[in-house]
Design brief:
By secondary structure, the chain is of the alpha+beta class. It has two domains: 81 residues, Ubiquitin-like (UB roll) (Roll), CATH 3.10.20; 91 residues, DNA polymerase, domain 1 (Orthogonal Bundle). 37% of the residues lie in helices and 13% in strands. Bound molecules: FE2/S2 (inorganic) cluster (2 copies).
Length: 210
């Protein structure tokens, strides 16, 4: 008996009460198995992926990354964290880089999406892909598709004069310096630590040498 409340809160009483409430709320197994599954909301969505129109009907909760990987079998874009923290899923949407794991596929009606599969082919590599090979910009390669898509977009941003956190003169066009490229690539994590070689590859492309 609790002195403060006058209620019996003995250990046996609590256990007995818990068992009774479980018995009251538990759903019989047979009933749970026959209950109809809740309806999944699907909607049609059309976008262009690597120059090809794709029409899908998707659960509204499907991320762009899952649409690419699971529905279109474009597995070049990787799922590292699924939380916007690693950059392995980076793709280009209308020329801008995004984390495909943080974006719902249904938000991309009519968009032009480029994945690593659309940047170049083994016979005709994109200059950034060629530069990554030349400079050994990878080890295990898991982060590489995202790194390359991001690197392509970064050089585009610098060319368009988009400033970054380390741009000192906001009135001037940023240069493709090592500091600029490292800052802009900071959302792409490489657990193998190939950062220096990635920066070298980007410098090669920026300088028109790749
Ligand atoms: Fe998208 Fe890591 S998988 S940021
Ligand atoms: Fe292995 Fe970047 S090359 S994680």
């Amino acid at each position: 008996m609790s002195e403060a409340t006058g209620v019996d809160v003995s250990r046996r009483g609590v256990l007995a009460g818990g068992a009774a409430s479980v018995a009251l709320t538990a759903v019989p197994v047979a009933e749970a198995q026959t209950a109809p599954a809740p309806a999944v909301a699907t909607v049609p969505v059309s976008f262009e992926v690597n120059g090809q129109r794709r029409d899908l009907r998707l659960d509204t909760r499907t991320t762009l990354l899952d649409a690419l990987r699971e529905h279109l079998q474009l597995t070049g874009s990787k799922k590292g964290c699924d939380h916007g923290q690693c950059g392995a899923c980076t793709v280009l949407v209308n020329g801008e880089r995004i984390n495909a794991c943080l974006s719902l596929a249904v938000q991309h009606e009519g968009d032009k999406i480029t994945t690593i599969e659309g940047l170049g082919t083994p016979d005709k590599l994109h200059p950034m892909q060629r530069a990554f090979v030349k400079h050994d910009g990878y080890q295990c390669g898991y982060c590489t598709p995202g790194q390359i898509c991001s690197a392509v977009a970064v050089l585009g941003e610098i060319k368009r004069g988009v400033p970054s956190h380390v741009t000192t003169d906001l009135g001037a066009r940023p240069r493709a310096s090592n500091a600029e490229m490292r800052e802009r690539m900071s959302g792409n994590i490489c657990r193998c630590g190939a950062y220096s070689n990635i920066a070298d590859a980007m410098a090669d492309v920026a300088g028109g040498r790749a």
